[in-house]
Amino acid sequence: MIAPRAAFPHIRQDLAASLVVFLVALPLCVGVAVASGVPAELGLVTGIVGGVVTGLLRGSTLQVSGPAAGLTVLVMEAVREFGLPALGVLVLATGLLQILMGALRLGRWFRAISVSVVEGMLAGIGLVLIAGQLYSVADAEAPASGTERMAGLPGTLVRAAGDTETLAALGLGAGTVAVLVLWPRLPRRVRALPGPLAAVALATAAAAAFSLPVATVEVEGLLDAVRPPGADALGLLADPALYATIVAFTLIASAESLFSAAAVDRLHDGPRTRYDQELMAQGTGNAVCGLLGALPMTAVIVRSSANVRAGAKTRAARVLHGVWLLVFAALLPAALGLLPLPALAGVLLHAGWKLIPFRGLLTLWRGERGEALILVATAVSIVVLNMFEGVLIGLGLSVAKAAWGASHVRLEVMDLGAGPIRARLSGNATFLRLPKILDSLEALPQDRPVELDLSGLHHLDHACRTALENWAERHSAAGTAPVRLTSR
């Protein structure tokens, strides 16, 4: 018989890491669910599936999956528009679409998405998440429009300052954020306890000790919260509006997971991520979550980096973290009812702030201002419009910038004073550069013959070719020798 230690040579490291990841994941699973407007237990269900189901599958060895703050805004909007029963259908369809894309080997193509678009997407999510949680702490209804939400926030906070109960909630939320900010600066022994868990535990103790009048998590029970999609929910697939949300879920969940995988690979020297298999693993997890009516999952960099830094060596660590979440949800469900909502809002406020890449934006602005503008435009579009349209705008700007850069063209003019003027085009002549090309050619003297050399062009599109031929006819019509065009 093979000894357990021989069969699992890294079980000690994986067991220790799984406990750390469980302690990090617990408050985040609950907080993301509450912020999404769904029962807290559904966040735990997604965390359990992310560990036990996705954790067992091949793809990325040390990456940990679960409910993510990055999808909170989109889930909240979907639940508000289509209702909670539709959530399972949306997540199930997302999972099946991810499995299909992985089977078609499209996972690697997500790495081609501009980093500026992804960071802009996360920044926009962070801004909306921060605003939403501030309204939540102030016990106020957040406006549906992103612009109105941002504009109304100062007035909401001023009105909240005059209410004793709201002030208590604001103070508890602010205290939670302060603990999270200061936690990394504390001694290493203290930091052995994950910051989110410590912040929520301290806030819970303070609320109980001082009898603060703050709302706590509503507990339904794990089995009561699970709502598999029924026939009525599946019938919502007839609504075309549902498909835009499914595409948004799929795009954002896949991009966040695969970008997280690339980041996690830089943290360890173990096996590298196989992107297509990881996309199928994420899809399988989301399909299971959809069948249970739970939240969508993504790979989460916070939990994944905690897993690596805690010394995890194999997939066993992330699987065990899902087991601990299941044990907690089964044996201690009443403990959720003790958690103050302002404390969970504070955790998500901190998470939203960390989604905004301040340093990355500054670096981009210094080195590549076009990319920095794409990041800002994506974030602002998400805040002003919505998630799906904001990401599409970011992708469109990214493609336009790439097309503009790829269409670099150079016009060299040689005039020896006698004989024909020699002009040479090199690079890529596309319609994007056509106004510049024509302006330069039309500035040439009309009473001189011209030889236009096109042999240096790597690409000449139809619009440019037609425009150059028309210019040659106009120039020749002035009574000079016909324009001579030479190419390869």
Automatic annotation (TrEMBL):
Transmembrane segments: 82-100, 112-135, 166-183, 195-215, 241-264, 323-353, 373-400
Main location class: membrane
Keyword annotations from UniProtKB, A to Z: Membrane, Transmembrane, Transmembrane helix
Entry keyword annotation includes Repeat: no
Pfam families: Sulfate_transp
Ranges where the SLC26A/SulP transporter domain occurs: 12-378
InterPro entries: SLC26A/SulP_dom (IPR011547), SLC26A/SulP_fam (IPR001902)
Highest taxon listed in the record's lineage: Bacteria
UniProt key word Coiled coil: no
Subcellular localization(s) per the UniProt record: Membrane
Membrane topology: Multi-pass membrane protein
Protein name: SulP family inorganic anion transporter
Record lineage: Bacteria, Bacillati, Actinomycetota, Actinomycetes, Kitasatosporales
